[in-house]
User: Fold these one by one.
Assistant:
Number 1:
Amino acid sequence: MSKINNVAIVGGTHGNEFSGVYLINKWQQHPQLIARPSLKVETVFANPKAHGENKRYIDADLNRQFSASNLADFSLANYEQSRAKALHQQLGPKSKPNMDLVIDLHNTTSNMGPTLILLEQTPFYKQLAAYVTMQMPEAVVFLDEPEEDMSNHRFLASCGKYGVLIEVGPQPQSVLRQDVLEQMEQMTGHILDFVELYNQQDLPELPKQVEAFLYLDSIKLPLNDKGERLAMVHSNVQDNDYQPINTGDPIFRTFMGEDICYQGEKTVYPAFINEAAYYDNDLAMSLLDKVYLELE
Amino acid sequence: MSKINNVAIVGGTHGNEFSGVYLINKWQQHPQLIARPSLKVETVFANPKAHGENKRYIDADLNRQFSASNLADFSLANYEQSRAKALHQQLGPKSKPNMDLVIDLHNTTSNMGPTLILLEQTPFYKQLAAYVTMQMPEAVVFLDEPEEDMSNHRFLASCGKYGVLIEVGPQPQSVLRQDVLEQMEQMTGHILDFVELYNQQDLPELPKQVEAFLYLDSIKLPLNDKGERLAMVHSNVQDNDYQPINTGDPIFRTFMGEDICYQGEKTVYPAFINEAAYYDNDLAMSLLDKVYLELE
């Protein structure tokens, strides 16, 4: 087992997700709040320009720019494509990362509560998920779509040897809610505590199994042939992130008042329901499978 | 009593408040839904350019551009200042309005439910408020800050002989919620029904008194001498629009965990709590007085 020595906590990857921006600022002024004896912890403000303009991004979504091919292509030169290359120098490179762990802080307008998103399912991640949910039972574990390997992953957190996202909602863009900020702060603290105990080989007894939700697919709002929306997310689904959707359940309501029902054969669990940032591409929600992480 | 002949329903005055934009679109395709026998009802898409860019506004808040002095000053030439002059031609002029009633549709990220905002407190408005709250008991009546006269009012709705806003939340910017859209559609329908009955002199018996909330003031978040925020809206206040705040109640929480309490001597009622659009100017909430409208 190799120790985790260097940790980066990243805020403002999306400029209008305020909790991370304000927490980073607080921790820069009070670094003792994130200090742990065996770690060097630093804070990074990922997209200050987008935050200054109160937008998710200036030219392109920063959290989709970290695949090996994007990072190697210097003709990709807009603000976020350039910022990604700089952040990859600072946090990575992926081949030999400066950072053993990257914690990337995000908000969603969806009712997802405090969610821990894991990029992989190796023993380190499973133990982390077990510890965090033991300390914070309201936390949800979300397993990102498996990538062939981390070098092709598009997320900022993939720059580190290990990478996680903390995703907390519901919070409208450009708003700071006390409850959401506190949940993000608590989950960050539990992750840092875990890493300290992991380094000291002093972890408490962890559960053998952890419930998690595995990303399957995203579904779009119904559109007409001009690309105009015909329906909204159904009120039965709205705010019910992680609650089961079964075959035949209504998931959309047309503007004329008709229900459109889920046709899949398997029970699925939605997240990012009606997320504001996904409106450009007409995404309605992500669909997840409920799975269990087995610890050794 | 003079009849109401021409009514304009306006959506998209703020480009990222989606309910009005989608309702206008629906009613343009199905005008029978807003038709009433004694009325000519038209729909107006106030700020299509801002909606196209998924923003509240391009250059300036359109709903602050309708004072007589702004409308007369042709050196004020940015997009919204120009658009305001065009809308004033279409809906006004205030001296002799084309529209007897302007209904302007808005969303808020605050938990204000379906709110009817009245620009004045004349008998027509009081009867309207009484009818709408009788049909829709969850509706809240909000009395705008009294202006010296309507010619100086900055809101779009002041272009009409009468003007109201329908303000429904909570809904994040750029999101369409079924519940919020339905409340906006219902309230619009009740207003049109009222006008039809008013024209026919066939109003039902109305309550003699209607509870309402009168705008007093707006308060800002606590800032340091660099203009940086020191605190957030307190979780005791968050989402509790229209619930009383008494002397000594905590209203802010500093980032270091201390409570800041309300110092006013009089009980007040907040609205627009933590509204995303007011974050540029650090407004935390509006404070209102609870009053009663007396019908003759």
Note: Chain A has two domains: 6-207, 211-294.
Number 2:
Amino acid sequence: MERVPVLKIGDILLVSIQIDMEDQTALQLQEDLAEKIVATGCHGVIIDISALDIVDSFVGRTLATIAAVSRVLDAETVVVGMRPAVAITPVELGLSLPGIRTALNVDLGIEMLAFSRDGAWAEDAEDDENEADPAAVPTP
Amino acid sequence: MERVPVLKIGDILLVSIQIDMEDQTALQLQEDLAEKIVATGCHGVIIDISALDIVDSFVGRTLATIAAVSRVLDAETVVVGMRPAVAITPVELGLSLPGIRTALNVDLGIEMLAFSRDGAWAEDAEDDENEADPAAVPTP
């Protein structure tokens, strides 16, 4: 069985999906990722799908499950690298990709995770950084 | 033909090899990587082979070629994630993996690249920052 490696880069986990997702591969990936989130304490997961030719309902469901599992483990998921032609399929299939945030590439995905994490920190911690905007309106 | 995606993360390029290397795939990867080095001005390339079950002479030669091409384009290559069992094969085959530096994982590979780049910078530039911004690619 083929296995999708989970790479740790700083405090994010990166998964580059290049092989066709089958039931076993998808389950194994969910398990590996969950274990790695717990083992490393990472708060962000980036899934690159730039190698995928199509995002069908199975892939969409797999991504949604990964995002949901990660959220339970206090990690956010961003899906990056979706090709223009690929983006059309889930829309046509009526897949809403619930709970999945997307970014154009890995760099932007990392930015998105850093930004939302800073926001979360600002709420429950007092240590504001220079960059933190004091005028930012806290969400009620 | 399957294609291995080249991901840009800060000022390094990351390649996660998960599929069996065939002639066309390897050539395409070399080409994609060379183009991306030139397009982004990245100085570091990390190749993750944690998904590979074996490093035979073809894979070894491919990695060596990628490292050589990258060096010509002023980028250093580090191969990361080699599994313990996998490491035995190239030694037994007598492959010396010329010009290839290795690290245990992506984080250590990034450190290795940063360290050798800082060393190179210190020689020809005086402006040392406390924290080199990995996202900033100085265009000459």
Note: The first strand of chain A starts at residue 6 and ends at 9.
